[in-house]
Specification:
By secondary structure, this protein is mostly beta strands. It has 1 helix and 33 strands. Strands 18-19-20-21-22-23-24-25-26-27-28-29 form a 12-stranded mixed β-sheet, with no helix packed on it. Strands 12-13-14-15-16-17 form a 6-stranded mixed β-sheet, with no helix packed on it. A 4-stranded mixed β-sheet has the order 4-5-6-7, with no helix packed on it. The termini are far apart.
Length: 536
């Protein structure tokens, strides 16, 4: 009977205890939300459930997740934002801790503290958990990281983008190519830098050389040569002098001919002069110890060098006319278009000045010709009528005689003036001169001066012919040797004399006068060597 009375008493005590316990909490329910607290404060207008306490917390359901990709052990339909605390380390997760379901997998919200990572600080930036693939990096830096396991990047094949002002500024694609100023990379280019008008790429280096000459910035180009990395070339921007505060600089383009050492090949000085093989270019283009080759891909257009004014108008050109097999042509623009001034033929070596078709080694023409002359050197006028002037200088291939020829329509045999190489005979109107001066026709003169000083100036017609007395190799009697003279009339001076060397006998020497005009006389005399003393 006592037992039955004690049970109702104990049950009453429990009712009193629970009634007292719940009296400590105040529940307020309004249309905006529900508040649970000990102060009786209403729920915040923005919260559907407002729980507050100064010495108590909320206990989230504890489960044992096995894999971040598996919704179990939670049952029912998956719900986005469901929050649990995993007592285990699920595969793909960052250890035990709070996880929420994002619709496809469990994402760790806050990682635990421990030896592998420092505890995250609570603040505006959130909480930094332990190092892991799903942990956040702090905005003020992270500690306890390991370069072998911790990184900023992706684990899939998508690109990593960087933004400022919510505008993509840089991208690293899945192949490691980097784009700056662009979100679309063009092919497999390791580094692509693009910008709008006015943007620049600034490469600089600071040194402690106090402005020493030869110091500055450098871009080095390298590659794998099969056995390891090697240098290919470099671009340098260096200080030209050692004057403090002076920014005069020069650029150097260097290449590696062999080995791993790059050496300067091209220099652009501060004054704009370019040196190829020269470190001190003295002209806009200074080439030292090297040749120049100019070529073009088109075989019909040819290659040229253009000399232009500062306003871009061309004044002179040097080009190979017709392309690969063309001649070398120098052209000038007098106004209205280029005109060929000088031509060097590739096949013959002929040079033409004023003509593109030189017919000799040097052919000078001022414009279009009517007549041509034969010879390696020819000079012609610019008269386009039949009265133009043309002179050619050449050599007879059979006799090796030199000649000067006037315009003759390419008549090779018409050579008015010819010089024989043997004996020095000169022919006028003949190709075979037999005397020092051989005129092939009538010669008109104003006077004739003889060796003794006598000058014949009387106007008359006639000719002088002579047969030379040969100089003997030994003393002999010039028997039957004779000379014949035909002279102009009305003269008192002797017209011919010959010399007999010492020891020659004057036997049977006959002087014949073929014709004597009325009034004329014939005189014969033997004079001394100086022509002043008459001997006979």
């Amino acid at each position: 009977m006592k037992t039955k009375r004690i049970f109702p008493i104990a049950r009453g005590i429990m009712y009193v205890f629970f009634a007292f316990h719940y009296s400590l909490f105040t529940f307020h329910s309004f249309s905006q939300g529900i508040a649970i607290n000990t102060t009786g404060a209403e729920a915040d207008d923005t919260a559907i459930l407002d729980i507050s306490s100064t010495n108590q917390g909320i206990l989230i359901p504890r489960v044992s997740l096995t894999d971040v990709a598996v919704y179990a052990p939670i049952t029912g339909a998956p719900v986005v934002s469901l929050l649990v605390y995993s007592n285990t380390e699920p595969t793909g997760g960052g250890g035990t801790g709070f996880y929420y379901w994002n619709g496809t997998q469990w994402v760790q919200a806050i990682g635990p503290t421990g030896a592998t990572g420092a505890a995250g600080a609570t603040g505006a930036t959130g909480v930094t958990g332990a190092a892991g693939s799903l942990n956040a990096w702090g905005l003020t830096g992270s500690t306890g990281t390991n370069t072998g396991t911790n990184f900023i990047g992706t684990t899939d094949n998508f690109s990593l983008g960087f933004r400022t002002n919510n505008i993509k500024r840089m991208i690293i694609d899945s192949m490691g190519n980097v784009g700056i100023g662009t979100s679309t990379l063009l092919g497999s280019i390791p580094l692509q830098i693009m910008g709008s008008s006015g943007n620049i790429l600034d490469i600089s280096s600071e040194n402690t050389t106090s402005g020493a000459a030869g110091t500055g910035s450098n871009i080095l180009f390298r590659h794998n040569n099969g056995s390891g990395p090697g240098n290919l070339g470099a671009i340098q921007a260096l200080k030209e002098n050692s004057t403090i505060g002076n920014n005069a600089g020069y650029m150097v383009f260097a290449t590696a001919a062999s080995g791993d050492i790059v050496r300067e090949k091209v220099r652009i000085a501060s004054n704009g002069n370019v040196g190829i093989g020269s470190t001190n270019p003295a002209a806009k283009l200074d080439i030292y110890q090297g040749n120049i080759k100019i070529s073009s891909t088109g075989q019909s257009s040819g290659t040229w060098i253009d000399f232009a004014r500062s306003d871009g108008i061309s004044l002179f050109k040097i080009n190979n006319a017709g392309g690969v097999d063309g001649d070398l042509v120098f052209s000038g623009d007098p106004g209205g278009g280029f005109v060929d001034r000088f031509t060097l033929q590739r096949t013959t070596g002929n040079i033409g000045i004023g003509t593109t078709s030189p017919n000799g080694k040097l052919n000078i023409v001022s414009s279009t010709l009517y007549n041509n002359v034969v010879g390696p050197l020819s000079v012609q006028s610019d008269n386009t009528t039949s009265y133009d002037v043309a002179i050619g200088i050449g050599a007879d291939p059979s006799t090796h005689a030199a000649y000067i020829q006037s315009a003759s329509y390419n008549n090779y045999s018409n050579r008015p003036l010819l010089f024989q190489p043997n004996g020095g005979n000169v022919g006028i109107g003949t190709t075979n001169p037999t005397a020092k001066l051989h005129v092939g026709g009538t010669a008109g003169v104003d006077g004739i001066k003889f060796p003794d000083g006598t000058l014949q100036t009387t106007a008359a017609s006639g000719a002088i012919n002579k047969s030379m007395f040969p100089r003997p190799s030994s003393l002999y009697n010039p028997y039957n040797n004779f000379g014949e003279i035909t002279n102009s009339v009305n003269t008192t001076a002797h017209v011919y004399k010959f010399t007999l060397f010492s020891g020659i006998a004057l036997n049977n020497i006959t002087f014949k006068i073929s014709t004597v005009t009325v009034g004329g006389t014939f005189k014969f005399g033997i004079y001394s060597e100086d022509g002043q003393t008459k001997i006979l």
